[in-house]
Amino acid sequence: MLTTSVSLPEKEAILWRKRQRSILKLAVRALRVQLRGKKVRRGVKRSYNQAQAIFVVVTTRFSEAEYDTLHLAAASMRVSVSSLVYQLILLWKKPARRSRPNLYVTNYELNLCIWAPNAAILTESLLFYPKIPAARGFTQPVYLSTP
Fold it and tell me: How many folded domains does the chain comprise?
């Protein structure tokens, strides 16, 4: 687990502290919504949470996969990870969204081609795969593996 901090409106920070694991279960759906609604942005400054509230810094822990996935999305859209977490909390606060099962898994991949004093070439990718329904007689779901 990686320990870091996010900046959230005070009210949502309390919810995040209490329900972080439950909220993160919606991360795949929330990221798909964000990717559908926002574009890749370049040549602009990063934007942060715009809520009119008192903000607090919350120390939090993410798995490496959660951390890398959130950072790829945030960097691509030029938003802060804190704003992605805030959007995730807002989605979680809608009971109808919470009750729907997550139908996808993600795979983050870093392809490092060149990392040298005169060049840096790398590719990050985030792929969404539909979950395969559990086979009859098995209790564990079967997931697609990376190609």
Answer: 1
Residue 137: strand, helix, or coil:
coil
Q: Is residue 83 in some structural domain?
A: yes
Please give the residue range of the domain that contains residue 72: 2-100
Q: What backbone torsions phi and psi does residue 118 show, to the nearest 5 degrees?
A: -105, 0
Question: Burial of 126 by CB count in 10 Å (0-12 exposed, 13-18 middle, 19+ buried)?
Answer: middle
How confident is the chain (147 residues) per 10-residue block, as mean pLDDT? 91 92 87 80 68 87 90 88 90 83 86 94 90 65 54
Angstrom distance (rounded) from CA 102 to CA 121: 34
- Give SS3 for 36: helix
Of the candidates 82, 79, 87, the one whose C-alpha atom is nearest the C-alpha of residue 45 is: 79
For the residues of 75-121, what is the DSSP string, one character each? HHHTB-HHHHHHHHHHHHTSHHHHHSPP-EEEEEEEEEEEEETTEEE
pTM of the model: 0.77
- The secondary element (H helix, E strand) that includes residue 61 is strand 55-62
**130 inside domain:** no
Cα distance between the two ends of the chain: 26
